[in-house]
């Protein structure tokens, strides 16, 4: 009877000891992504630039006739917008 009681107590003790060592693992997945590249584009105000250039050109060479002024203005605007 003593052996049976000891065996029962030992069985219960080892069962609790086995449960105490049981480790539950939680798996968490972390997704790491590269940060997106952010481009900062400063757009030129082509109208202001061309106006200033036209004033400068006219101050250097004198007033232009209307057709020449339109042609120069259009070329400067296209160049500015192409480099924007």
What does this entry look like structurally?
With 84 residues, the protein is mainly alpha-helical. The chain has one domain (2-82). 62% of the residues lie in helices and 0% in strands. The chain has helices spanning 2-20, 46-61, 66-82. Helix 2 (46-61) crosses helix 3. The longest helix has 19 residues, at 2-20. The radius of gyration is 42 Å and the shape is rod-shaped.
Uncertain residue segments: none
Total helices: the number is: 3
- What is the C-alpha radius of gyration, as a whole number of Å? 42 Å
Query: Helix coverage percent of residues?
Result: 55-70%
Average of pLDDT: 75
**Straight-line N-to-C gap:** 97 Å
Total number of strands: 0
Largest sheet: none
The string of secondary-structure elements, in order, is HHH
Number of domains: 1
What is the strand content?
A: under 5%
What overall geometry do the principal axes of the alpha carbons give?
rod-shaped
| Class inferred from helices and paired strands | mainly alpha
Task: Summarize this structure as a short list of keywords or feature phrases.
62% helix; 84 residues; mainly alpha; 3 helices; 0% strand
